[in-house]
Design a protein that fits this description.
InterPro entries: Aromatic_Lyase, Fumarase/histidase_N, HutH, L-Aspartase-like, Phe/His_NH3-lyase_AS. It catalyses: L-histidine = trans-urocanate + NH4(+). Its EC number is 4.3.1.3. It is found in: Cytoplasm. By secondary structure, this protein is mainly alpha-helical. It folds into two domains: about 190 residues, Fumarase C, Chain B, domain 1 (Orthogonal Bundle); about 280 residues, Up-down Bundle (Fumarase C, Chain A, domain 2), CATH 1.20.200. Helix content is about 55%, strand content about 5%. It has a three-stranded antiparallel beta sheet. Strands 1-2 form a two-stranded parallel sheet. A hairpin with a 4-residue loop joins strand 8 and strand 9. The protein is elongated. The two termini are about 25 Å apart. About 55% of the residues are buried.
Length: about 500
C-alpha cells in the first residue's frame, strides 16, 4: 500500500481510516515541508522583533494580556502542555489516537502554525512507528480546540505522559526510545500549535462516519432479507416512484433494493397477499435515503475540517500577517456529529420495527411466534426484540444535541463553546448501538428464512444469509445470543460482508 502524502489539502476520510485502522504509512510532501519551514522563520522573526503575538509572548485565554519575557517563551509552552493535560475518563482507542495524530499533522502541514519541521516530523514518525499517546476521552469543550485531549498527545512528544507501544502502556519517553525516536524541547508557539485545534472531535467523527456509511449500505441488504421473509411487495421500489420525488439518496436506496431483491421467489405483488406493506418496509427508500442525506452532509463537513488550519493565531506568509482568530471553534463538526446521531438513530429505529414484525405473530403473516421452533417451551427470539428496543431507546437519549449547549470558560473570555467532542463521543455510542440493532434484525430474518425457505431468497440476500450462517447457527433450541449479536454487529461495522452481497447484487449505492 502506497503511503498517504500529507500536504494539508487533499486528505480524505477513506485515507484517515486506512492510516488509523490499516496502519498505512504517512509521508509529508516536500512542498508542505518547505511551507512549514518558511512559516517557522516568520514566527521566529516575530518573536525576536518583540511584537506582541498571542501565545508566542503572551499568556493564554484570560491571560492573553500578560506579556511574557523572551527568556520565558519556551517555558511558557511547556507549562501550557503540562497544565492543559488534565483530560479524564477511558483512553481513546489506539486507532482513534492514530487518526487524531494524522489530522493534527495534516493541519500543521498547511504551513499556518509556525511550528518547526522537526516537531511535525516527530508527530508523523510516531504515527508510522506505532507510538500512540494515552489520550483520555473526556474534558474537551470543543472550542479553543480540543485542548485537554491534544495536550496528552503533546506530552508524549516532549517525552512525558504515557503512550502505547506494541500493545504495552509505557511512560511517554520510554515509548519514544523503544521506537527509536527522541523527544523534542518545545519552543515559542509550538505548544499552542499542537493543541489548538479540532482534531479530537474530527478524528472520532471521521472513523464513526466511515463505519456509519458501511452500516447504512448493509442495512439495505438486511431490510431486503426481512422483506422477503415477510412476503413483501417490491413494487414500492419502482424507479418511476422515486423519480417522482428525486432525492438522489432515496433513488439510490430504491435502486439498491431492486438489485438486492432481483431473483427472489418469496416477494409478492400488490394484491397477492396484501395491497401494501407497512411503512417499515414500504418506506425503506424514503427513510434509509434520508439517513444517507445526513451522511452526505457529514462527509462534506469532515472533508473540509480535516484539511483546515484550526489553530490560533494563524501566520500568513504572503501577506506578512499574524491574526488571532477563531478557527479552533468546533461548531461545524458539533452540528455534523449531532446530525449523524439523529440519522443513525433513525436507521436503528426502523430496523427495530422490522424486527418486531418478524417476531410478532400478529404481524409476521404466519411465522411462528417469536420464531420459536417449539412455541411455549422455547422462547425463541422473543427477548432479542427487547434488547433492540432498549438500544433504540438509549439512542434517543444520546441523540439529544450536544451542539446547543455552551458553558463559558477562562473567566468568560471563552464565552461560547461547541461541545463538539461530546457530540462525537455520543455518535460512537449511537452507531455501535445501531449496529447491534441491525445485527438483531439480521439474526431474526435469517431465522425466519428457515421457516419460509432460504432456497427462495434472492442471490444477494442469500449471500448475506450465508455469511451470517457461517457465524451464527439456527436457533433451534434456546441459547444465549449475546455473543452472536456482538460478533454480527462487529462484522456489519467492518463492512466485510458487503463484498459477498455486492458480488451477487452489483455495486451498491
Amino acid at each position: 500500500m502506497t503511503p498517504v502524502i500529507l500536504d494539508g489539502r487533499n486528505l480524505t476520510p477513506e485515507a484517515v481510516m486506512e492510516v488509523a485502522v490499516e496502519l498505512r504509512e504517512v509521508v509529508l510532501s516536500g512542498e508542505a515541508g518547505e511551507r512549514v519551514g518558511r512559516c517557522r522563520e516568520m514566527a521566529e522573526e516575530l518573536a525576536s522583533a518583540g511584537k506582541v503575538v498571542y501565545g508566542v509572548n503572551t499568556g493564554f485565554g484570560k491571560f492573553s494580556d500578560v506579556l511574557i519575557s523572551p527568556q520565558d517563551t519556551a517555558r511558557l509552552q511547556i507549562n501550557l502542555i503540562r497544565s492543559h493535560a488534565c483530560a479524564v475518563g477511558r483512553p481513546l482507542p489506539e486507532e482513534t489516537v492514530r487518526a487524531l495524530m494524522l489530522l493534527r499533522a495534516n493541519a500543521l502541514a498547511k504551513g499556518y502554525s509556525g511550528i518547526r519541521l522537526a516537531v511535525l516530523q516527530l508527530l508523523i514518525d510516531c504515527v508510522n512507528r506505532g507510538v500512540h499517546p494515552v489520550v483520555p476521552e473526556q474534558g474537551s469543550l470543543g472550542a479553543s480546540g480540543d485542548l485537554a485531549p491534544l495536550s496528552h498527545l503533546a506530552l508524549v512528544l516532549m517525552g512525558e505522559g504515557e503512550a502505547y507501544y506494541l500493545g504495552e502502556r509505557l511512560p511517554g519517553g520510554e515509548a519514544l526510545v523503544r521506537a527509536g525516536l527522541r523527544p523534542i524541547a518545545l519552543q515559542a508557539k509550538e505548544g499552542l500549535a499542537l493543541i489548538n485545534g479540532t482534531q479530537a472531535m474530527t478524528a472520532i467523527g471521521t472513523l464513526t462516519f466511515m463505519r456509519s456509511r458501511r452500516l447504512a449500505r448493509i442495512a439495505d441488504a438486511i431490510a431486503a432479507l426481512t422483506l422477503e421473509c415477510l412476503r413483501g411487495i417490491p413494487e414500492a421500489f419502482a424507479e418511476e416512484v422515486h423519480r417522482a420525488r428525486p432525492y438522489p439518496e432515496q433513488i439510490g436506496v430504491a435502486k439498491n433494493l431492486r438489485a438486492l431483491l432481483k431473483g427472489s421467489r418469496l416477494t409478492t405483488r400488490q394484491g397477492e397477499i396484501r395491497v401494501q406493506d407497512a411503512y417499515s418496509l414500504r418506506c425503506l427508500p424514503q427513510v434509509h435515503g434520508a439517513t444517507r442525506q445526513t451522511l452526505e452532509y457529514v462527509r462534506d463537513k469532515l472533508t473540509i475540517e480535516i484539511n483546515s488550519a484550526t489553530d490560533n493565531p494563524l501566520l500568513f506568509l504572503e501577506e506578512g500577517m499574524v491574526v488571532s482568530s477563531g478557527n479552533f471553534h468546533g461548531q461545524p463538526i458539533a452540528f455534523a456529529m449531532d446530525f449523524l446521531k439523529i440519522g443513525m438513530s433513525e436507521l436503528a429505529n426502523i430496523s427495530e420495527r422490522r424486527t418486531e414484525r418478524l417476531v410478532n405473530p400478529a404481524l409476521s403473516g404466519g411465522l411462528p411466534s417469536f420464531l420459536s421452533h417449539a412455541p411455549g417451551i422455547a422462547s425463541g427470539l422473543m427477548i432479542t426484540q427487547y434488547v433492540s428496543a432498549s438500544l433504540v431507546s438509549e439512542n434517543k437519549v444520546l441523540a439529544h444535541p450536544s451542539s446547543v449547549d455552551s458553558i463559558p470558560s477562562s473567566a468568560n473570555q471563552e464565552d461560547h463553546v461547541s461541545m463538539g467532542t461530546t457530540a462525537a463521543r455520543h455518535a460512537v455510542q449511537v452507531v455501535d448501538n445501531a449496529a447491534k440493532v441491525l445485527a438483531i434484525e439480521l439474526i431474526c430474518a435469517a431465522e425466519a428464512s428457515e421457516f419460509v425457505g432460504a432456497d427462495g431468497l434472492a442471490p444477494a440476500t442469500r449471500a448475506l444469509y450465508d455469511q451470517l450462517r457461517a457465524r451464527v447457527r439456527p436457533v433451534v433450541d434456546d441459547r444465549s445470543l449475546s455473543q452472536d449479536i456482538e460478533r454480527t454487529a462487529a462484522a456489519l461495522l467492518s463492512g466485510e460482508w458487503l463484498v459477498a452481497v455486492e458480488a451477487a447484487a452489483g455495486p451498491l449505492y
